[in-house]
Automatic annotation (TrEMBL):
Organism taxonomic ancestry: Bacteria, Bacillati, Actinomycetota, Actinomycetes, Micrococcales
Protein name as catalogued: Polysaccharide pyruvyl transferase domain-containing protein
Stretches assigned to the Polysaccharide pyruvyl transferase domain: 72-335
InterPro entries: Polysacch_pyruvyl_Trfase (IPR007345)
Organism of this sequence: Microbacterium awajiense
Source species, domain of life: Bacteria
Pfam families: PS_pyruv_trans
Length: 403
């Protein structure tokens, strides 16, 4: 039996993280059946055990004060094993260490977190599981990510990434960000494009929330990250007001209903999209519904499929739209956004969320409404190619397991 440990995600509160975990585990199990066992390493195991009821969840020390002890234990185990041939398994004192050592492959699903874009400590935390895998002599792959840039983390990034068994990236912008590291990478597409929507579940959620069925739905995804960056760039300005004003202006007189779709709900309140969504909703003059519950990724994708267009600050919400032919205006705070929109020929509808928003965002909303059907057809023309690129990640993982 093959054993695979999936690592790099934070919590199933983040529906993009949950989507990547669900897709990779489901696809590997579909390919190998009873011949594979997949575990998910999670820094939020108490929540994720319920979120992944059919998966084994092991606690990850990546965000705890225990990480230096785990790293030291893995390092000592590796020295004893390499120098003296000793398996000092008493050092493997956590499920994460035991799983990392016994796995045939560690698959990292950090998305866009192998970077210093979110600070040194956040970036370093995502290298911790890979350092443990390296010292415990377990092959690891970097799966479908946006990587870099690096500054203080550059030596660690070079040491770890150059020793990966495989690296796939989801847009070519990454190549520029890590050009000095000498990495071998293959451009594919995010694994999230393989997620199947739960249309029945979506219908139930929308009906329970009282969303009308006779109006065009406009999906709106907001993000505390973008709020923080926008308000840092424009002291005294309100991100929520800028978004609401743009939507009110652009869609005034349209027969639409706004659905605010939360894609991250925690674990800390500072990460919760719903808090920002409430601020935006309070300023909307158009009919709207603010979805508040914990909604599973397949159901969220089904909700997005019902939308006429999506205005998205969360990239996995945008991917859920693009993979179903729903046009998107993407609010960007990272290089990942431009690359993924380009892959569907929609790169001209990326709005840098750190710039003044109102005029540009309003103009793009008007444009996407006018061009909706043409945009949808263009997106669908790229669908099969992007999904095939997404599936190549699974094929490459299976090839590594065979090797």
């Amino acid at each position: 039996m093959k054993k695979v440990l999936l690592t790099g995600t934070a919590s199933a509160h983040n529906k993009g993280d949950a989507t990547m975990q669900l897709v990779v585990s489901t696809e590997l199990e579909a390919a190998l059946g009873d011949d594979i066992r997949v575990a998910i390493a999670s820094p939020s195991p108490s929540f994720d055990v319920a979120a992944y009821p059919d998966r084994l969840v092991v606690a990850s020390v990546r965000r705890s004060r225990l990480f230096p002890v785990s790293l030291a234990a893995a390092g000592l185990w590796g020295v004893l094993n390499r120098a003296f041939g000793i398996r000092a398994d008493a050092l493997l004192f956590t499920d994460e260490l035991r799983w990392t050592e016994s796995a045939d492959l560690v698959v990292d699903l950090s998305g866009d977190m192998l970077t210093e874009d979110y600070g040194f400590l956040v970036g370093f935390s995502h290298f911790i599981p890979l350092i443990m895998a390296r010292w415990l002599r377990t092959p690891y792959v970097i799966c479908a990510q946006s990587i870099g840039p690096f500054s203080r983390l550059k030596p660690i990034a070079k040491w770890i990434l150059r020793r990966a068994a495989d690296i796939t990236i989801r847009e070519d912008v990454t190549r520029e960000r890590v050009a000095g590291l000498g990495l071998r990478m293959e451009t594919t597409a995010d694994v999230s494009f393989l997620l199947q929507p739960d249309t029945a579940g979506a219908a139930e959620v929308l009906e329970a929330a009282g969303v009308p069925t006779d109006k065009r739905l406009i999906g709106l995804s907001v993000s505390p990250i973008l709020k923080q960056r926008y308000e840092s760039a424009h002291p005294g300005a309100s991100f929520a007001h800028a978004i609401a004003e743009s939507v009110n202006t652009a869609l005034h007189g349209e027969d639409v209903h706004i659905v605010l779709i939360p894609h991250v709900t925690g674990p800390a309140t500072r990460h919760d999209d719903r808090i920002v969504a409430r601020e935006v909703a309070a300023m909307l003059t158009l009919d709207h519904t603010n979805l508040e519950g914990e909604i599973a990724p397949p159901v969220l994708k089904g909700v997005i499929a019902r939308c006429h267009v999506v205005l998205g600050a969360r990239m996995h919400a945008n991917m859920g739209a693009l993979s179903q032919g729903v046009p998107v205006v993407a609010l960007s705070y990272s290089h990942k956004t431009q690359g993924i929109m380009d892959s569907f020929g929609q790169g001209d509808l990326v709005v840098d969320g750190r710039r003044p928003l109102r005029e540009e965002l309003s103009a793009d909303i008007v444009r996407i409404m006018d061009e909706r059907d043409v945009r949808a057809a263009a997106i669908r023309s790229h669908h099969d190619e992007v999904v095939a690129e997404s599936r190549r990640n699974i094929t490459r993982i299976l090839d590594r397991l065979d090797a």
